[in-house]
């Protein structure tokens, strides 16, 4: 958790600190990912069970507590899986570099890069669809910036090559994010109809 402020305030310095730590995946998950991934889940649970999704035109859909808990657990598991998938994507994309980092380091890097996305979940306390999309888009842009800043240090490559690598990784990350979002919406819609 000590890297959250640094990633938002001074990402260059924080990425250097993260690289020097050589953190294990289990430590990283227990001290960062599990906690940070809970932010959007808890906020969405509170927002959707207390206020309801504001779909515009004075139409809101409020979830029951049981539905909110069930969907929250699924959402949480999808987020944790998404971080692991992105770690594998970064590891796969780095296959042609001579100083290819281990899968462990790639997963840790993916978890730290996802920090803005985790923090953007705070907006789900007031689940207004357009506001959630706007804040999520801004978080995705900052995540791209963190990739651009972190990749050169992480893979020991120059900035020009880093732009290509981080752009490709971000594109795949957006695809994974969209799949997770679609799964969440489908599960949420199915859960709303079931319960």
Task: Give your account of this protein's structure.
A hairpin with a 5-residue loop joins strand 1 and strand 2. The protein contains eight helices and two strands. The protein has 195 residues and is mainly α. Keywords: Membrane, Transmembrane, Transmembrane helix. This is Yip1 domain-containing protein. It is a multi-pass membrane protein.
Q: How would you summarize what this structure contains?
A:
The chain is mostly helical and 195 residues long. 78% of the residues lie in helices and 2% in strands. The longest helix has 36 residues.
- Please describe the biggest sheet, giving its number of strands, its sense, and whether it closes into a barrel: 2 strands, antiparallel
Q: What best-fitting shape do the alpha-carbon axes yield?
A: elongated
Q: How far from one another are the termini? A: 36 Å
Structure annotation, total helices: 8
Secondary-structure element pattern, one letter each: HHHEEHHHHH
| Unreliable residue stretches | none
Q: Specify the helix fraction band.
A: over 70%
Protein name: Yip1 domain-containing protein
Keywords: Membrane, Transmembrane, Transmembrane helix
Subcellular location: Membrane
Domain Yip1: 5-178
Descriptive tags:
single chain, 195 residues, mainly alpha, two-stranded antiparallel ribbon, elongated
Topology:
Layout: H1 4-9, H2 11-21, H3 25-51, E1 53-54, E2 60-61, H4 65-93, H5 103-113, H6 115-120, H7 129-155, H8 159-194
Helix pairs in contact: 2-7, 3-4, 3-5, 4-5, 4-8, 7-8
């Amino acid at each position: 958790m000590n890297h959250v402020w640094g990633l938002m305030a001074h990402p260059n310095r924080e990425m250097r600190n993260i690289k020097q730590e050589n953190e294990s995946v289990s430590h990283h998950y227990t001290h960062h990912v599990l906690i940070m991934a809970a932010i959007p889940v808890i906020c969405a649970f509170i927002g959707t069970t207390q206020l309801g999704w504001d779909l515009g035109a004075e139409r809101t859909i409020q979830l029951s507590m049981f539905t909110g808990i069930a969907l929250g657990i699924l959402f949480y598991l999808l987020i944790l899986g998404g971080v692991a998938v992105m770690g594998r994507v970064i590891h796969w994309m780095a296959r042609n570099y001579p100083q290819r980092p281990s899968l462990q380091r790639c997963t840790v890097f993916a978890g730290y890069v996802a920090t803005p996305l985790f923090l953007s979940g705070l907006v789900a306390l007031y689940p207004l669809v357009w506001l959630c999309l706007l804040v999520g888009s801004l978080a995705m842009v900052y995540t791209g910036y963190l990739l651009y800043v972190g990749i050169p240090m992480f893979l020991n490559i120059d900035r020009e090559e880093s732009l290509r690598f981080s752009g490709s990784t971000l594109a795949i990350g957006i695809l994974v994010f969209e799949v997770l979002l679609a799964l969440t919406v489908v599960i949420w819609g199915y859960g709303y109809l079931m319960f």
